[in-house]
From TrEMBL:
Catalysis performed (reactions): alpha-D-glucose 6-phosphate = beta-D-glucose 6-phosphate
GO CC aspect terms: cytoplasm
CDD domains xrefs: D-hex-6-P-epi_like
Name the record gives this protein: glucose-6-phosphate 1-epimerase
Domain of life of the native organism: Eukaryota
Length: 288
C-alpha cells in the first residue's frame, strides 16, 4: 500500500486479524492494531508524512544516536531515510520466526550521512506479529569491515492511551534516570510507579527487561519486553511543549505516552565483523 505521500507501506496481518503497518520512510511502524481493529499506537493528527520529518507517532527508530550528536540530525538519520525491503536476510534465531506476518527491512543511508558518520554498517530490521498479536521488532546492526564504531539506539514508541492523568508505569522504581528537563542531571526514582502531572523527559538507566504501562480508563496494560536495550526513555511533552511542536496537536499530549526501549547511557561499540541484536516485544492485555 502507499501512504498519502506515495511512500510504500507494508501491511502485516496475523491469522487472528491483528495487524501492523510499516512505512519504508524511516522503517517506522505507524500502526499496530488488535484483532478487533483497535489502534494501539498514537500518531498525531498533524503528523507530516514526508522527509525531512519523522512521522510524529508510531515507532521512530533513533539511530545512530538518541538526542543530539555533533552535526547529525536530532535522533539520527535512520528515521528520516528510505529503507528497502530485504529480500534475503541472513537467518534469524529460530524463535524469532514464530510470527507468520513479518517484514525484513534494510536501512539505506545517504552518501551525506556516511560523510558525517563514516562507518560501513548494516542495519537490518525485522518487524513481525506473533500468533497472539504481539508486535516484535528485531534490530541487527553490523560493522561490515571498518574500524570500531559506537552508536546509541532507541525505539521511540508512542503508545495510544486514554488519559495521561490516569496512566501509571511500573518497572522503573528505584532506577537512576537522566532528566532532560534538568540538563540530563542524574536522579533516582523514588516512587513505586510513575504517574504524570507535568512534562516528563527522562532516560531510566539499566532498567529491568519488562516495563508495564497501565491505562486505567481503558482497563488494559501494555507490556514492553526487551533484550539488549538496557535503558528506557519516558516522554510526555505536556501542554507547553505540545504547543511548541508544529506536528503535534495542542491537546494530544493527553492521549499519548512515549516509553522507549533504548541503549543510551552506554553506547554500543562494534569491532569489524561484529553484530549487535536488540529485541523489543510489545503486548497488550486486559487489566482491571
Ligand atoms: O523522548 C525524548 C526526546 O528527546 C524529547 O526531548 C523530545 O524531543 C522527543 O524526543 C521527540 O523528539 P523529536 O525529534 O521526534 O521531536
Amino acid at each position: 500500500t502507499k501512504d498519502r505521500n506515495g511512500t510504500d507501506q507494508i501491511l502485516l496481518q496475523n491469522p487472528r486479524g491483528a495487524s501492523a503497518r510499516v512505512s519504508l520512510h524511516g522503517g517506522q511502524v505507524l500502526s499496530w492494531r488488535t484483532d478487533r481493529g483497535e489502534e494501539l499506537l498514537f500518531t498525531s493528527s498533524k503528523a507530516i508524512l514526508k522527509p525531512p520529518y519523522a512521522v510524529r507517532g508510531g515507532i521512530p527508530i533513533c539511530f545512530p544516536q538518541f538526542g543530539q550528536r555533533g552535526s547529525l540530525e536530532q535522533h539520527g538519520f535512520a528515521r528520516n531515510r528510505t529503507w528497502i525491503i530485504d529480500e534475503n536476510p541472513p537467518p534469524l534465531h529460530p524463535n524469532d520466526n514464530n510470527g507468520k506476518a513479518f517484514i525484513d527491512l534494510l536501512l539505506k543511508p545517504l552518501e551525506d550521512d556516511l560523510k558525517i558518520w563514516p562507518h560501513s554498517f548494516e542495519f537490518r530490521l525485522r518487524v513481525y506479529l506473533t500468533a497472539d498479536g504481539n508486535l516484535s521488532l528485531i534490530s541487527r546492526i553490523r560493522n561490515i569491515n571498518c574500524k570500531p564504531f559506537s552508536f546509541s539506539i532507541a525505539y521511540h514508541t508512542y503508545f495510544s492511551i486514554s488519559d495521561i492523568s490516569e496512566v501509571r508505569v511500573e518497572g522503573l522504581e528505584t532506577l537512576d534516570y537522566l532528566d532532560n528537563l534538568c540538563q540530563r542531571e542524574r536522579f533516582t526514582e523514588q516512587g513505586d510507579a510513575l504517574t504524570f502531572e507535568s512534562e516528563v523527559d527522562r532516560v531510566y538507566l539499566g532498567s529491568r527487561d519488562v516495563i508495564a504501562i497501565f491505562d486505567h480508563e481503558r482497563k488494559r496494560a501494555f507490556f514492553i519486553r526487551k533484550e539488549g536495550l538496557p535503558d528506557v526513555g519516558v516522554w510526555n511533552p505536556w501542554v507547553k511543549k505540545s504547543k511548541a511542536i508544529v506536528d503535534f496537536g495542542d491537546e494530544e499530549y493527553k492521549q499519548m505516552l512515549c516509553v522507549n526501549g533504548a541503549a543510551v547511557e552506554k553506547p554500543i561499540t562494534l569491532k569489524t565483523g561484529e553484530e549487535w541484536t536488540g529485541r523489543l516485544e510489545l503486548s497488550v492485555v486486559p487489566s482491571s
